[in-house]
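Review session, final week

We close the course with one last complete record, chosen because it touches almost every idea we covered. It is COP9 signalosome complex subunit 5, a protein from Diabrotica balteata with 284 residues. Go through it on your own first, then we will talk.
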Amino acid sequence: MSKVGCSSTSTQQFEGEAPSSVAQKMWEMSNAVEVVSSVDEIYRYDKKQQQDILVAKPWEKDPHFFKDIKISALALLKMVMHARSGGTLEVMGLILGKVDGNTMFVMDSFALPVEGTETRVNAQAQAYEYMSSYIEAAKLGYKPANEEPSEYQTIPLNKIEDFGVHCKQYYSLEVSYFKSALDRRLLDSLWNKYWVNTLSSSSLLTNADYTTGQIFDLSEKLEQSEAAIGRCGCIVTGEKRTEDKLLKATKDSCKTTIEIIHGLMAQMVKDRLFNSVTPSNRIQ
């Protein structure tokens, strides 16, 4: 969620800039988007290296082989827009990228034309055809260097129940976001269309259902922990599971509280930027 502060220094940095630029920078700050120093660092493709990784398959020997995932700001924005367009229904899409060591890189993402219901998303033949066409189109015009042209994550209780016997096979990755010079024009193009909605909306209102669901899920986890403690009267040394659940519930409560505080801080920043009139402005 947003990490924007409400200090006078932060607001002064945005003064004199276009509203669309302000909205984009606030979004980048809230998601801690890093600017990569060199495009070649991430977008250079080493065919031999990728083939060696696919042949070795180190993730089969170590289930926790991958440690980090870096997502392009463009891919992040497209995923968020797609998810929001689905409303309360589940959506389906694919991500494109590569693997480098213990890190996954997500360069792009795209939505699939699928039918969504209240319980599931059904992919039909049309979705598979679109998937194939999109991936092939993404390769057009690509020419590798010196080569010939060629063709902790918070998990709700209901999701834990869905995972079932496979729940122990899931683990969270360290997520970070990056932006390159190649993304800048695409982001500017997207923002010119949606910046008004960004500034006029409030995360406290748009995420009201999400926040309510987090609080409701947190209360269920606390009730389960309380019931577990009540059965034994206390948390004995051997009962690590109950203690771990309480620790996770504490982290979830902190996360929810921080998100709400960040929403309030973002509102204060926007109020300072657009509603506060200084004496010097009145004279002008």
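Two points worth writing down before the exam:
The two ends are 37 Å apart (CA to CA).
The first strand starts at residue 33 and ends at 35.
Good luck, everyone.
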